[in-house]
Design brief:
Chain A: This is Rod shape-determining protein. Chain A: InterPro entries: FtsW/RodA. Chain A: One of its GO terms (molecular function) is lipid-linked peptidoglycan transporter activity. The complex is a heterodimer of chains A (430) and B (627). Chain A is 70% helix and 3% strand. With 430 residues, chain A is mostly helical. In chain A, helix 2 runs antiparallel to helix 3 and helix 6 runs parallel beside helix 19. Chain A is globular. Chain B is of the alpha+beta class and 627 residues long. Chain B folds into two domains: 182 residues, Penicillin-binding protein 2a (Domain 2), CATH 3.90.1310; 363 residues, Beta-lactamase. The radius of gyration of chain B is 32 Å and the shape is elongated. Chain B starts with a helix and ends in an 8-residue tail after the last helix. The relative contact order of chain B is 0.10. Classes of the chains: A mainly alpha (430), B alpha+beta (627). At the A-B interface, helix 9, helix 15, helix 16, helix 17 and helix 18 of A face helix 1 of B.
């Protein structure tokens, strides 16, 4: 068997099939959401669906390029790619184009490029490279710090644009680090902080502090009853308790003094903080407008949906940003429960497939890379659809493969297909 | 475990999202999935049908339509503009503008409300050019009524905007739409209204029209209302109203062979065109608050009066049917009927002498009917029992109850039974027949409306059967086939007993027999009738004061194959033959001959005004009656 035939046989055609299904369904929905009366062919470049078709075409070229490059290239050049990505993010401050208050794009004529979409793949490469280094031990605190630095550098630059949504996605790397052996204490700390954040907002900081103190002191007393004299552990526990109270106060201060009203409203809606129905309705109507409209649109789909291009609310532009972040509402309205669940199933299936393949990698670089791809795609999927169906605060990030946008589609394509290349190449490493 | 974490999270998120979607799309009751009308992206545009026309029994057009222009508002779409200019065009003040807008908002921000209803055509032409400046407002054309006649307002009724109660009862109407409020407009609302057409259009969030919804699959065309023909004879109605000018009361004429109402007159009345269009509410208030003339009060249907002497005909029939008298039985009248241990007397003006059924009726002898009535009740062991039998006979004429007919309003009247006296009136069982003796002459507790009197007369004219009085003749060109109106109903009185009574009613017009209406004959027409004079009282400053008697007359003609039965009621017109009888004869001549030969009588009636009589109790000064 020639090398080429072996490669074709080893490549994960299932992932590729899922990829094209999602891209294809995505385009069908973009078409429905953006087509107007004056239809002049699917390649009409003045229309979003025409442009997206071009983006899909170029993605296929990118795929062919990625698959034909030697697999070792990605590992070898990961650091350089990472540095380029950082520089491209830095460069935005000088050459960036401001759109809607965020300097996230390079503009060349009418063509724009969003480097943060590519920075994800670069960061994944860099982290995989670092973690797969034989000298790296994630149990060492210093190595943990280096990992954090690699992960956090891009989102810090992205926050400056500002683009909180894109920055938030980097939290996905937490799953990767945990998978690769990050001590569980981080998991607990993270979990505790999220819990305290929610409780503080729900109950108010005074009750939360009292509750934390009572619960914390009682726990310390029970656990360390016999060892109260072992100062070191007791001190650590008390320090944590003080830190927790500090955190609560900080949450309270930041939420009410640093956050702006529209930030607060996002949490108000999802956590049900506003009790006054009149005010709540006002927030729903004004700030929660997008989510409110997308829920109505999805709800109006019923089981079978209204049919392609028949969505009254899609056609009536009731849902803002329906081509990009809110593209899933079109699925919900026109394809109903049946279509929505198929899309969700396809995403879950693809994610599980990538995870499965990642776990099978003998090469640690490939494994970390694959796992990171799954985690990042998962974050986008969960946050985007969660937001559209009203389970998550409004965060502007695209739905991978679905949302309109060249940078996004190319970024996700590169991210996924580097893994497919690595995966298809795994035997060669023996 | 570390390997499994992300797997589990991915799968759980998938499940949670599927659950959330099933809630949103399958189980959410607010969802618009169940009904596309809940979708704010779909807007219904209505096309109002023309209301059906109304014709009289001879095919004369009574009610047609005319276009009217309503200014509509959709509060959500109202943008800033020059309010002062707009108000000037609409001829409203800026305060009114704010008030109207608030009212529209409280109804709905999204659904159009009427802002100014039924503008005149010249205002419309002027406003239409400038309408585009006032975003959120538009003009809707509709058809409103155009009355071709100035009479019959009480019969024809009127249409007006639906009120909140009507909206709740019938969800097919929307705020601002027109609905029949009174008269046949109300009774035949369903037929006259037609079906409004609807066009569903799809709109985007900026309210721009995108096109029709689902290519008009749910759209319907407007279906015009059905034309109806009513039983009223417009010429007779008009003549009757003319005769009743400056008088109060009612005239009801019925065709005995069909139960069709030929005329339904109430006085004072008003011109039906007063209640059309934008001036409707102003004029309505004026009519509604006229507590002296009460023009909106349909006396022909609603005024309950003691029927007086015409009721004697029924008492004669009951006595004959109960076999307590024969046509030959006589009673002697001694200027009245003397009864009871203390020798109380019910006076009589018949001039005393021997009275049988025929001349009893002709001379309206109180004594004869008091005797006959007493015999009927006393035939049974207990007066209660006797009264119940009596009452059932009377009620078999369809009296003492609603007709269940197609008039939008009515009264039951009252035919007392033995149970009524025991349970409600005396509240004990020890009463004597003489306690109710006034019923013998149509006073006492008996009460009837003019239409019931006319109906009673028609039933006598038919010799014992009747058709429920009704006002509809044909719908959409097809004669009615409602068996309630087209099939005869029979009284409990045998046909043979009617002849002597009818003979008596015929003798009412007989000079030779000294009948009470002997001066009211119409040449060439054999009329049977009965006069009535009813005492009546009002409270003035808390004091029960007697007013001039009501003038009552019932009649049918001709004697054989009667074509018309009529009841005339003139408030405070004094004795029956004085005004009611004359009006009755004129009406009968008008209907049967189509022209009037009794010119002197007509002139007398037309020129007579009873306004002085009606002013008496209001003057606050002492006054005399029955002069």
């Amino acid at each position: 068997m020639s090398r080429e035939v072996k490669f074709v046989k080893k490549i994960d055609w299932l992932s590729i099939l899922l990829y094209f299904l999602l891209v294809g369904i995505g385009w069908i929905n973009i078409y429905s959401a953006s087509v107007t009366e004056s239809f002049s062919g699917v390649l009409d470049m003045s229309q979003l669906y025409g442009k997206q078709l071009v983006f899909i075409g170029t993605s296929i070229i990118i795929i062919i390029l990625i698959l034909s490059i030697e697999a070792k290239f990605y590992e070898r050049f990961s650091s350089i790619i990472y540095v380029i990505a950082l520089l491209s993010l830095l460069g935005l401050m000088v050459f960036g184009k401001n759109v809607n208050g965020a300097t996230s794009w390079y503009g060349i004529g009418s063509f724009t490029l969003q480097p943060s979409e590519f920075a994800k793949a670069a960061t994944v490469l860099a982290l995989a490279k670092y973690l797969s280094d034989i000298q790296t031990n994630i149990n060492y605190f210093s190595h943990q710090l280096i990992s954090f630095a690699i992960i956090l550098a891009p989102p810090l630059l992205i926050m400056l644009q500002p683009d909180a949504g894109s920055a938030m996605v980097y939290m996905a790397f937490f799953f990767v680090l945990y998978r690769e052996g990050l001590p569980p204490i981080y998991l607990w700390i993270g979990f505790t902080l999220v819990l305290l954040f929610i409780i503080t907002l729900k109950l108010g900081y005074i009750y939360t502090i009292i509750g934390t103190l009572v619960f914390g002191l009682a726990s310390i007393f029970i656990i360390f009853k016999k060892e109260l004299k072992r100062r070191r552990k007791t001190t650590l526990a008390l320090t944590s308790l003080v830190a927790a109270i500090g955190f609560i106060l900080a949450v309270n201060y930041i939420f009410y003094n640093v956050f702006q009203q529209h930030h607060r409203d996002r949490f108000t809606l999802v956590l049900g903080l506003e009790k006054d129905p009149v005010k709540l309705e006002k927030i729903r109507k004004t700030f929660g407008f997008n989510t409110n409209q997308s829920e109505i649109a999805i709800g109006s789909g019923g089981f079978w949906g209204k049919g392609w291009q028949k969505g009254t609310r899609t056609k009536g532009d009731f849902v803002p940003e329906q081509d990009t972040d809110y593209i899933f509402t079109t699925v919900g309205e026109e394809w109903g429960f049946a279509g929505s669940t198929v899309v969700i199933f396809l995403f879950v299936f693809l994610l599980l497939r990538i995870l499965h393949r990642a776990e099978q990698q003998k090469n640690k670089f490939s494994r970390v890379y694959g796992y990171s791809v799954a985690a990042i795609l998962f974050f986008h999927f969960a946050i985007n659809i969660g937001m559209v169906i009203g389970l998550f605060p409004t965060v502007g990030i695209p739905l991978p493969f679905f949302s309109y946008g060249g940078s996004g589609l190319w970024g996700f394509t590169i991210l996924l297909f580097i893994f497919i290349k690595l995966d298809a190449n795994r035997i060669n490493e023996w | 475990m570390r390997k499994l974490l992300l797997y589990l999270v991915v799968v759980s998120v998938g499940i949670i999202y599927t659950g959330r979607l099933s809630y949103l799309q399958l189980f959410n009751e607010d969802a618009v999935a169940t009904n596309f009308l809940n979708d704010s992206a779909i807007k219904a545009i209505y096309d109002y049908p023309e209301r059906g026309f109304v014709y009289d029994r001879n095919g004369e057009l009574l009610v047609a339509n005319q276009p009217s222009y309503d200014v509509m508002v959709v509060p959500r779409e109202v943008k800033e503009f020059n309010v002062a200019e707009f108000c000037k065009l609409l001829r409203i003040t800026e305060e009114e503008y704010e008030k109207k807008l608030e009212k529209a908002k409280s109804y709905s921000w999204r659904i159009p409300s009427i802002f100014v209803a039924q503008m005149a055509k010249k205002d419309y032409a002027f406003l239409q050019e400038k309408m585009h400046r006032f975003k959120g407002f538009y003009i809707q054309k509709r058809s409103i009524r155009n009355y071709q006649t100035s009479v019959g307002a009480n019969v024809l009724g009127s249409i007006g905007e639906v009120n909140n109660g009507e909206l709740k009862r019938n969800p097919n109407y929307q705020s601002g739409e027109l609905i029949g409020k009174t008269g046949i407009e109300k009774s035949y609302e369903d037929e006259l209204r037609g079906q409004k057409g609807v066009k569903y259009i799809q709109k985007d969030i900026h309210n721009n029209v995108l096109g029709s919804y689902k290519n008009g699959r749910h759209d319907t065309l407007a279906v015009n209302g059905k034309d109806i023909q009513i039983t009223i004879d417009a010429k007779l109605q008009e003549y009757g109203e003319k005769l009743m000018v400056n008088k109060r009361g009612g005239i009801v004429a019925i065709e005995p062979s069909s139960g069709e109402i030929l005329a339904l007159i109430t006085a004072p009345s008003y011109n039906p065109n007063l209640l059309v269009g934008r001036k409707r509410s102003k004029n309505y208030n004026k009519l509604h608050y006229d507590s002296i003339n009460k023009p909106l009060y349909d006396r022909g249907l609603l005024a309950m009066y003691p029927p007086g002497s015409p009721f004697k005909t029924l008492n004669a029939l009951v006595a004959l049917q109960e076999d307590v008298v024969t046509p030959q039985t006589t009673y002697t009248c001694r200027n009245g009927y003397i009864y009871g241990r203390s020798g109380r007397k019910m006076g009589c003006h018949c001039g005393s002498g021997k009275r049988n059924v025929i001349n009893g009726v002709a001379k309206s002898c109180n004594a004869y009917f008091a005797n006959a009535y007493r015999q009927v009740i006393s035939k049974y062991d207990k007066p209660r029992e006797g009264m119940n039998v009596w009452s059932n006979h009377i009620k078999s004429f369809g009296l003492g109850n609603y007709f269940g007919n197609d008039l939008s309003t009515g009264r039951k009247g009252r035919i007392p039974s033995g149970d009524y006296y025991t349970n409600d009136y005396f509240k004990h069982d020890k009463w004597h027949v003489l306690n109710t003796i006034s019923n013998a002459i149509g006073q006492g507790q008996v009460e009837m409306t003019p239409i019931q009197l006319a109906h009673m007369t028609a039933t006598i004219a038919n010799r014992g059967h009747y058709y429920t009085p009704h006002i509809i003749k044909a719908i959409d060109g097809k004669p009615i086939d409602n068996p309630h109106f087209t099939e005869p109903k029979y009284t409990t009185i045998d046909q043979e007993h009617f002849e002597p009574v009818i003979q008596g009613m015929h003798d009412v017009f007989s000079m030779k027999k000294g009948g009470t209406a002997r001066f009211l004959n119409v040449p060439g027409i054999e009329i049977c009738g009965k006069t009535g004079t009813a005492e009546n009282f009002v409270k003035i400053d808390g004091k029960r004061t007697q007013l001039t008697d009501h003038s009552i007359f019932v009649a049918f003609a001709p004697k054989e194959n009667p074509k018309i039965a009529i009841a005339v009621f003139v408030e405070n017109g004094y004795y029956g033959a004085r005004w009611a009888g004359k009006i009755s004869s004129l009406m009968i001549e008008k209907y049967l001959k189509g022209e009037i030969t009794l010119k002197d009588m007509e002139k007398l009636v037309l020129e007579k005004s009873l306004e002085d009589e009606y002013a008496k109790p209001l003057s606050g000064k002492p006054f005399t009656i029955n002069e």
